[in-house]
Structures are given as C-alpha cells and as structure tokens.
Amino acid sequence: MPSFDEKDKPAPTLPTAESFEDDKISHDHDDRNSIIEGSDNVTREEFDTLRHIGDKLPSAAWLVVFVEFAERWTYFGTTNVFNNYIRAKLPRGSTNGAVVNAIDRAGNGVAGALGKGQQTSYAIRTFNTFFVYVTPILGAIIADVKWGRYKTIMVFSLICLVGHIILVGSASPQVLQHPDTAMGLLVFSILIIGVGAGCIKSNVAPMLGEQYQGKLRKVTLGTGETVIMSPAVTLQSVYLCAYFYQVFSNQRNINFVESGFYASINLGACGAISASFVARDHGFWVAWLIPTGIFCLVPGVLLIGKKYYVKTAPRGSVLLETIRVIRMAMAPAWSINPVNTIRAIKAPTFWNPAKPSYYSNESLPASITWDDAFVGEVARTCNACAVFLFFPFYWLCYSQIDGNLSTVTAGMTLRGTPNDLIGNLNPIAIIIMVPLFDYVIYPMLRRRGINFTPIKRIYAGFLVAGLAMLYSAILQHYIYLTLPCHDNIPSECVTTDDAPWPSPLNAWIVAGPYILVAISEIFASVTSIEYAFTKAPTRMKSVVMAFSSFQSALSSLLNFALVPVSTEDKFAWLFGSFGVVAVVIGTIFFLVFRDLDRKEAELNAIGSGKREGFVDEIPEMMKPQHDKAII
C-alpha cells in the first residue's frame, strides 16, 4: 500500500461563489428535467412551458350526467317551493295551495299551504339542508366498504324515489285539510329524500370523474403544436361543464360529454321554474308530481349504462382507516395548552407516530394496517380538506338565496310573477356564464401568464358572495322605507279584504343577489368540487367529496342558531352581517392557504396514481398484518 507524508496531501479546495452557483444551476437543470409523478414522461420544464388543453371523456359519462341532472331537477323542483308551502297560508278560496283568485294571480298573489310563518319555514328548510349534506358521509362509507359507487347510487335512487312519492301525497287537498298531518308527512319525506339524495351526491361526481382514465402527457396537434394533455384542465371542464362552445365551434379538444356535471346541476335546478308556476296555478302536489316523474327515469338509465361504466369495486372504508391514522398522530400531539397542540400539529414529525416505520417489528401496534405511503396520502389529503373548513361561512351567504330572498320578493310588487320564480336566475346565470369563464376568461388569463389558481378563485367567490349579501341588505332597507304597512313584515302586509299589499318596488330588482351568488359559485363552489377530486387519492375521492358537502351541513348548524333572528323585520341586519363575514373570512382563507398555490402540480399528483402494496380483497385489507404493507 503506497503511503505519503502529511505534507504530500493535496490542499483542500474551498468552495467558491462560482462553484456554488454552478452546483445550483446543475441542480436546477436536473430538477427541470425530472419526470412529474404520475405523468407519461412529462418533465417539469414541459409542464411549465407548454400549453395545457383538455382531453376527451368516454360516452358513458353522458349517462352519469343524466343521473345528476334528474336528481338535481327533482331536488330543486321540490325544495324551491318549500318556503311558500310552509310559510304562507292557503290563498283565498284555495284547497291545494294554488292562487285561484284571478286578480291575485295577475297581481301579487303568492302560493301557500301550511301557514306556519317565516321562522318555522326557515327552521325546516335549514334542517333539510343540514340532513341532505350530512348523509353523503353515509353514502361514501357504503360505497367504499360494501357496494361500490354504482350500486350505492342505484339503491339510494330507489329510496329517494319513495320519499318523493310520499311528498306528493302529503300535499294533496285531502291531507292539507289537516295541516299538522301534512307537516308530519313533509318532515318524514324530507328524511327519506335526504338519505337518498345525500348518498347519491357523494358518489355521482367521483363516478363521473372516474370515467376519465387519461394521464398527464404530451400530444402534437394537427397544427404541429406540442401541448400538454392535462387531466386537471379536463376535470376542470368536467365540473365547470362548459358545453355551449360546441354549438359554435368543433375545434376545441374537449368533447361535449366532458361538459356534463355542473351544467347538469344547474339545468336540473331550472326544474324549479316549472315548479313555481305549477304550484301557484295548480297546487303543490302537482308541482311535486312532475319532478317525481322525471326521477323515475334514473334507475332505468343506470341499468342501461351498467356494462359501460368504469366502476370502482368496494375496497374497505378509507374514512375509518384515515380516522385511525389521524388519531394515532394526534395522541402524542394533544395538550391542554392549545398553543402547544397547534405547534405539535405543525411540526414535521407530527405524522411519524402513525407510520409503521416509526416502530420496530416487535412494538408495531396491531391497529396499524397501512404503510408509510398511506400516511403520506392522509397528510396531504388533510391539507387539501383544510381548505373546505372555511366553506360553512360561504354557504351561510348561499343559504339566503335558498328561501329568505323568496320571502323578500313576496313583499315586493310581483305583477303576476311567482315570488319563488326569480330565484331561478341563479342556475340560469350559471348556465350562461360558465361557458364564458371556461372558454374565454380562464384561457385568456392562461395565455397572459396569469395563474388564476383554485385558492384565488375560491377567495374571489367569497368576495362576490359578500357583495351579494350587502346588495340584499340595502334592498331590504328600501323595502322597509316604501312598505305601506309599517311593521317591517312585507310578506304579510294585506288590505282590509285580505289582498296582498306589497312595497311598490319591482320584484325583479332582487335579481342582483341571485346573479352575484351565481358568479361566486363559479369561483368557489365549482372550484371546491374540482379541488376535492383532483387533490384526493384514488380511494379517498368519495370521502373527500362528502367532506366538502359536509361543510354545507355545518353551515346549516350555524343557521339553526340564527332562527330567532331570521324574521323579516331583521333581514337587513342579517344580510349585512353575512356580507361582512364573507369578506373577512374569505380574506383570512386567502392568507392562510395562498402557499398551496405554489404546490398545485404536486397536490394534483396525489390523486393520479395507486399506492404500492395495494391488496384488493376486503378481508385481507381489514386484517392487521405486519410482514407486508397493507393499505
């Protein structure tokens, strides 16, 4: 072995600023040429520099779109007239809730039945919203553990249909002769419909997204341009549902099928238009019979598409596994001092106690039936779900157009317009404006290098919703000033012969809040659906969608606390308060989550791949095994 003296050793070379810069350039170059996880050989540089376009969806997605359309038509076609049905009494000479007096029908007559007043109406409508948005958790678990999404939707569509049939019977003239019985049947039908619609809701959107199986990849168009075929852009179009472009051009690389989901929601919501007129002219039982007939088609459509759908088999409840992971991570982090608890949650080692690698083989808890990769997915999914925690305050604003603004309209000059008709401007505005956003505004921003990311879009939604509420507060103030009666209860102001005597303000002025809320939905609600689906790991999509919907349930709980002040004489203060809250909470939301915009591509990769070590059979999944990774 040759040797040399200490003095013969080469002198150590100290790093220079130039060498540091060379290393940085080399590292950056390697990072720019790295392949994005879950893609088909797309590099980071290609992802950042090439234009992104949408891909195509298979034709089976049309059938999923119809299911959503029919469910939404039926839901909105019934709930849209709940406020009048519960709040207002039977019109003069009516036995079924219809306005039978010709003068009232051409003037300011409002349909009604039970006559329980504004607060009772508000409480029942709030309960309905709460229940229909809390039951998606049940639907997600059933789909993941037992039936899969297809069978879950099929079974609960039949349950939902039964509820609608009971609802129709509860509004028959014979039952309305006994208002307490009618009220009991109404609540019973709300419970059944809530279970059915909620369990459908948490599974339809993920099932539609699952019909698309494409990857992030490069394609060369006929023009010679190389572009990125982006699942994120595709799914954005799926849920935005910007389908009108196909009427004017066939050059877009997005199939008409892709435009199904959110447009189907709002086309279905237009079913409330017919319900408003039918309830006023023919009674509530007829108004509810029409959407019930449409919903009868859902089971048949599901059967027709059975052999064409991409179906996800039940593979165990990821929700229950996720809860166990969070519980194990939280156990050592919990402290009676909330500051210490928050500090521990933010620590980079927070999730370590839930990882199998944290323990030796001898000390590994029997309750751990997952691998480290699953814990990583739970951590990233929790980060994505944290975005939704602010949404209850957004839905507080939305809930006001779902009934209270209808009461506002009842105290204005109608001139033959049903007071609950104007609310349909919300879905109509969405149908008109979604193509504008998807095919004009968003692409224009992308071409100019402006990245209008989901966090920024949601923030914009909060601001516009707050503006809608401030508009409503100012409008209500002017109704008070112009009302012939001076008790600040416009909807109950009548002449000596019991004819409506409203404010002279034209009812169509109330269109402003409905249109503004529609714009806010495009920013906030549509984006939340997109965000939930793209950020969720493959097996957690139903659960994350249900968690997103659950925020509406939490909003309903907040609304329950506001029932005592949900009276017409306090509407101006109520609307104004919601407007301020939306702006303040939206700003806090943006400040908290703006850093997620920088991680958009990485977060989208969560839902693009499968975890290693996946075991398909449920019995094996649920057994604690420590000699291999079980997920």
Automatic annotation (TrEMBL):
Keyword DNA-binding: no
Disordered: region residues: 1-36
Superkingdom per UniProt: Eukaryota
Sequence ranges of Basic and acidic residues compositional bias: 1-10, 22-34
GO cellular component, one term: membrane
InterPro entries for the chain: MFS_trans_sf, POT_fam
Keywords, alphabetical: Membrane, Transmembrane, Transmembrane helix
Annotated GO MF terms: transmembrane transporter activity
Localization per record: Membrane
Transmembrane segment boundaries: 130-147, 153-171, 183-208, 228-248, 260-279, 285-305, 382-401, 421-445, 457-480, 507-531, 543-565, 571-593
Membrane topology qualifier: Multi-pass membrane protein
Similarity section: Belongs to the major facilitator superfamily. Proton-dependent oligopeptide transporter (POT/PTR) (TC 2.A.17) family.
PANTHER family attached to this UniProt entry: OLIGOPEPTIDE TRANSPORTER-RELATED
Protein name: Peptide transporter PTR2B
Lineage, uppermost ranks: Eukaryota, Fungi, Dikarya, Basidiomycota, Agaricomycotina
